[in-house]
Amino acid sequence: MNTHTDSGASEKTGAKRRYVTAGLASMMGTTIEWYDFFLYGTAAALIFNKIFFPAFDPIVGTMAAFATYSVGFFARPLGGIVFGHFGDKVGRKSMLLITLMLMGVPTILIGLIPSYEQIGYWGAVLLVCMRFLQGVAVGGEWGGAVLMAVEHAPEGKKGFFGSLPQVGVAPGLILSSLAMGAVAKLPEADMLSWGWRIPFLASVVLLLVGWYIRAKVAESPDFQGMEQVGKKVPVPVVEVLKKYPRETLIVVGARLAEVTWFYTTVTFALAYSTGTLGIARSTMLDATIWGATAALVTMPFFGWLGDKIGQKWVFMLGTVGILACAPLFFSFLHTREVFWINAALVLAVGLVYASLYGPEGSLFSSQFPAEVRYTGISLAVQVSGAIGGGLAPIVATWLLGKGNGDPQYVVWYLSALGAVACFSAWKMLGDARFKVLLASPLATKAP
User: Fold this and answer.
1) CA 75, CA 121: separation in Å to the nearest integer?
2) Nearest one of 173, 52, 36 to 118, comparing CA atoms
């Protein structure tokens, strides 16, 4: 009897170790990948117009730099489809290792691209190619990281563990802001000639750490169970579009507001504040760090809260936050006072964004069954990312021009998307498909 009890306790401990390891590895892996992705966004807002588009008018040069930035978003759906397909057919873990390399290597190469003065616009062409590969990597990585955390997690904790890979956004943003903040303190000539390259080249260290961590994680138990009962489908993306168009569209509608909110309040606001309002770069980067630091705490909190009251209700609360906080955000920036600038980013990233992004992993995953889950969430999330994130800085810059420097149209733009997201979340299924999964033969393989 004691042997049986000890065996059961040991098995339970082993299962807990597996899902905790999977959650932490997902968080650390996404930290590394988002460091690479955000680093580019910060450089596009502050530096790349001077390095690769110096012949342009400053505003046109900034928009050109944001256009190269947008390429990464438009590449995301391709990454979601390709890696989603193989993630549903071959396994989640192997796709995460491939996407990590596909993100890290181009980031390092960006740090080696010659400037406009050396090779003309060929530098911009190489920049676009590397950004495209980054976008493909992120498009495939997000779904795998979320599923490794959610599918390993026990019932009643999927929201919390699903928030952990989301939490990786915050340290990724902190690290990229710290890195660019450090080189921004160099003399202008040094920063533009060689200083900006250091944060990109330093990515090699993070790449090696990320590979080591992810290699230790076991394959998703849901995928293993799916293999055993033979539930794989021939072409997952066709299955998603034929059988789950409703689920795909409501995830796109919900996610569009979140991703547009984030890249407007972080990337566009960085260029707007430094260029239009005359706020120091270091002040904005420091405020971004404060916002991301707050999100380190609030994202897992909102994931945990979703386990208690329902992920969709927490997400809907975040959409109401967009409506309430969009005008406040720009009002705080317009004070040009450090305290209120910090408050603006804490409000935008640490509260509104965290309440949307924290519950997303579990909420969006639960809309699709296990056999097409990687493809379903990747396709929906990355299409909305291409539309929202890819166009957010460009659209916001255009709307700012239409308002003669007044961001009122930007506020309306964000508010309209917030209303669409609220309706979309209301139409979601909650965690219904996870409950079906628990009643199926796949549950025998869950930890």
Assistant:
1) 21
2) 52
The dihedral sign for the CA sequence 389, 42, 109, 114:
positive
SS3 call for 187: coil
CA–CA dist 378, 134 (Å, integer): 15
> Residue 211 gets which letter from DSSP?
H
Radius of gyration of the chain (CA): 21
All domains of the chain in start order, with CATH: 10-445 (1.20.1250.20)
Contacts of 169 (CB under 8 A, 6+ apart): 30, 31, 34, 292, 295, 299, 357
Residue 114: DSSP 8-state: -
C-alpha torsion angle, residues 20, 26, 31, 34 (rounded to 10): -160
Q: Token pair for residue 122?
A: 């060929």
Cβ contact 96:141 at 8 Å: yes
Nearest-angstrom CA–CA distance, 44 and 389: 14
109 and 130 in contact (C-beta within 8 Å)? yes
Query: 246: how many CB neighbours lie within 10 A of its CB?
Result: 11
CA 433 to mean position of chain CA atoms: 24
Q: How many CB atoms lie within 10 A of CB 7?
A: 10
pTM of the complete model: 0.76
Best CA proximity match to 71, nearest among 426, 410, 385, 356: 385
Return d(Cα 135, Cα 137) in angstroms, integer: 5
Dihedral class, residue 208 (left if φ above 0, else alpha if ψ from -120 to 50, else beta): alpha
Please give the torsion angle defined by the CA atoms of residues 347, 353, 354 and 355, in that order, rounded to the nearest 10 degrees: 100
Instruction: Count other C-beta atoms under 10 Å from residue 101's C-beta.
Output: 13
DSSP 347: I
Q: Which of 385, 429, 380 is nearest to 84 (CA)?
A: 380
pLDDT in tens, the chain (447 residues): 454 444 444 445 545 566 666 666 677 767 877 787 778 777 776 777 777 766 655 666 666 666 666 777 788 888 888 888 887 877 777 787 888 888 888 888 988 888 878 888 788 788 888 888 888 888 888 777 777 777 777 777 787 877 877 788 778 878 887 888 888 788 878 877 888 888 888 888 877 877 777 777 766 666 666 666 656 678 888 888 999 999 999 999 999 999 999 988 887 888 888 888 888 888 888 898 899 889 989 998 998 998 888 889 999 999 999 999 999 999 999 999 999 999 999 999 999 999 999 898 889 988 988 788 888 888 898 888 888 877 777 788 888 888 888 888 999 999 999 999 999 999 887 654 444 343 333 333 333
Q: Are 130 and 105 in contact (CB under 8 A)?
A: no
